[in-house]
Automatic annotation (TrEMBL):
Belongs to the RecO family. Residues 1-80 form the DNA replication/recombination mediator RecO N-terminal domain. Involved in DNA repair and RecF pathway recombination. Keywords: DNA damage, DNA recombination, DNA repair. This is DNA repair protein RecO. It comes from Candidatus Enterococcus mansonii. InterPro entries: ARFGAP/RecO, DNA_rep/recomb_RecO_N, NA-bd_OB-fold, RecO, RecO_C. The keyword Secreted does not apply.
Amino acid sequence: MTLGETKGIILFTKDYKEKDKLVKIFTESFGKLMFFVKGAHRKNNPISPAILPFTEATYIGDFREDGLSFLNGSKEISSFRVIQEDIFVNAYATYILNLVDVAIEDRTYDPNLYSFVQQALRLLNENKDAEIITNIFEIQLLSRFGITPEWRHCAVCEENQGKFDYSSKYSGVLCEQHWHLDEHRYHADPRAIHFIRLFSIISYDKVQEINLKPETKTTIRQTIDELYDEYVGIHLKSKKFIDQMKSWEDTLKRPIREKKEE
């Protein structure tokens, strides 16, 4: 048992009995923990604002090595207001948080991942391109699932320029000269592979420099889906919702800013 405080990001909450809640928080200091919050539904409970979805705060409590931890208080509460209010941005943020929850075990200390999640949510909250932010997150999160494809250069000859495709056989990309070595390579759009290679190394502060056409985003999405289906094998409801959302977002007349690729 550790009494103290830590920064944390709400992953999800669920009701427990009539007045209480169980709250899953990704903490900077202790990894993911499930907290019991007594009287969470009580009016004017001072901790209520800190356990709303898409909230980051400093949490004060009893952090336990097994079983449920307990929240005693909070401070420095910061809500991701745009994520909370925009159903489209909300969908991508929910998916990112769901990925975190399945990518590492509870109580796994991972401050680098915490910082990565924090950056992703802040950019989403600034209305930066949600698809690109999510794609970068997915590709760089693969290592937490034990998957480390060779994106830097051709897995055969180490060529790093030209057209590439992904090969499961070689656990990385192949340059065009070596496509013949794997007839079961992905046969992906070379532009999709180009950007996925970029996403594997880019930092989030460079996101605003990437502008993609909708059709390129679609091929990137298809390729990442293929990678996750093959290597990770998870099927999250939040991802299914995003896929469905693409078919009805035009109906809701959400403005879509088409940009020229750089």
